[in-house]
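Lay summary. Proteins are chains of building blocks that fold into shapes, and those shapes determine what they do. In this project we predict the shape from the chain. Here is one chain we studied, written as its sequence of building blocks.
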Amino acid sequence: MTESLDAKQKREEALLSAFLEMVRSPDGDFGVIDRLAAASADLESLQLMIQSLSRHPQGKLAFATYPRVGVVDLEQLALLPSHTLGYTYAQHMIKNNLKPLQMKPSNNDYEFLGAHITETHDIWHVITGFETNIIGEIQLEAFYVSQMRFSRFWLALITKNLLKTVVYDIERSTEYMDAIAQGWLLAKHAQPLFGIDWKLLWEKPLTELRDSLNIKIL
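And here is the predicted shape, written in a compact code that computers can read:
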């Protein structure tokens, strides 16, 4: 179904409004992030993203089976050996005062796409070695843009950070550009992360997982 001109204009206005609101907001304002995510989730780009991700066998299987992380017990994961993914993830979450997000069940490809990306975000932080500070977030944003084509949301986040340097903090422009390049290049050489059933891998050695995914920590 082709989007009407009026609907397209309204979508563009909503996206621009959410984008400018985020530029003016402090980093880490999750309410603004949610509004940008909603405004950037147009059907056309989501369909293109799903088609692109489904070209890889792992992504194709994920859209057929909808693997979810499910309930995560950080205390139990923290009891695993220190070299495992589960232990490292638990320490990452505890250190940053974060809690695993509980998402609703997936009933279609669009719901699965959003839920899977959301609930695996901090797992991707651990796998890539990117911190949760602004530089680490920019690195991971660039990683997402490289691995998940047609994502208006992640591209908007990178653009937001660059625009913030133009308006508020030009001294950090080189640092931000380096972070973008680092995340982009790491993703280009890495195996796809989307669609991995991470709950089956908690007990796996983190270095072994990184090697299998061709992720070379900076």
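What the prediction tells us: The chain is about 65% helix and 0% strand.
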